[in-house]
Amino acid sequence: QSWSRGMSYCLHSESHLDTGPIYVRENGKLHVVNRGAGGVQNVTPKARPFSLFSRTFSVELCMNREDDRARRQRTDHFIFTYTKEGNLRYSAKSLFSLVLGYISDNVDHIDSLIGFPEQIAEKLFSAAEARQKFTEPVTGLRALQKFTEAYGSLVLCSLCLRNRYLVISEKLEEIKSFRELTCLDLSCCKLGDEHELLEHLTKEALSSVKRLLLKDNSLSDAGLRRMTAPVRVLKKGLDNLLVLDLSCNPKITDVGIGYLLSFKKLNCLDISGTGLKDVDAVIKRLQMQIGLVHSKVPLKEFDHSNCKTEGWAEQTVLQWEQAVLEAMKPQDNLRSRVTALHFYGKTHRIEEVVKCTLVEPETKASGNLQFYKENVENCHLPLKKEVAGSHELKNNKKRALAEQERERTSKQKHLCLTVEDWDLLNTY
């Protein structure tokens, strides 16, 4: 009876741990003492709540088990801090942060974001951007399209690709996925009349563009005819255009300017450096039909100081450019090709392409051909009301022209190097 009283005490004790079945040997036989069986009389064990795991069981949070080896050392779900005594202390991140990180790792699998709160979507975009998910070739495009379809101009409202022709060639489909852009700068990209991006300008996705800069893009009358066809025929496409820069495209003639007359909302126009034959006739035509006045001084709308990339995807565009530059780092083969071109007498062709920002003969012949619409607040107008005897205003204009000329020449020298690289890449 002694063992029975001992076991009864253990079973009724509050501090007793659930250790499983208990066996007691008596007279050479084993007896089961839990649940009141095995020969134990008058013992009714206290009912205990059922527990799936023991108290010493621990749980480890794991994500993406297929890559478990690489993630054994990963501690993204913890925040590590040091106490005043120098001891390392960690605390778990919030459930929102963990879920946000998991979804951003698999952002390309999202079906749709239409109707999803934009505040949370912006955080999700930033988390995916920090993981450089949008730089991946296939999955990045798919993920970016989900955001642009749902949020449009919030993802990107202004895009500056000035002199970034390599980014255009590598990320053309991603660039075409942007919707509701209001400003697009494609200056000095040498796209030509047949480029796919210029055709995309006439699509409904870019009908919101109000500021389009196409300086130095090897455009001709045929390109302008194709670009303005939806506006002239269907009253769609770039119908909302307010500012247009077509400077430094010497193949554009008086015929091409006639296609621009369909842009009735146009407030500012720059056609400096084009191949116009009768400049006076063009000036009168623009003033009579769409109300554009020839400006005697350069307009601030065309100094490119206000054009920049704005939106959630601002860092994404910089990541694309950085990836392109990283891919071009090995310059040994490129230098050998330059040497080969010099050896085989093709230096003359390279020097012609280097002159990319301005075609000097056409610019000197036509002069400054910038136009603006009077009494329009959105257009940065020049100073028109001058005092006849005011030397101060004249000096200010001279200084402004000199500063813009220095800025233009400095940019021209900077752009020449990259255009040479671009020409070499095209020839091979």
TrEMBL record:
Q: Looking at the keywords, is Membrane present? A: no
Key word Repeat present: yes
Q: Quote the Gene3D superfamilies the UniProt record gives.
A: Ribonuclease Inhibitor
What does UniProt give as the signal peptide span?
none
Please name the Pfam families in this protein's record.
Answer: LRR_6
In terms of InterPro entries, this protein maps to: Leu-rich_rpt (IPR001611), LRR_dom_sf (IPR032675), LRRC42 (IPR039631)
Q: Which UniProt keywords apply?
A: Leucine-rich repeat, Repeat
Similarity-based family: Belongs to the LRRC42 family.
Q: What is this protein called?
A: Leucine-rich repeat-containing protein 42
Q: Which organism is it from?
A: Melospiza melodia (Song sparrow)
Which lineage is the organism of this entry classified under, starting from the top rank?
Answer: Eukaryota, Metazoa, Chordata, Craniata, Vertebrata
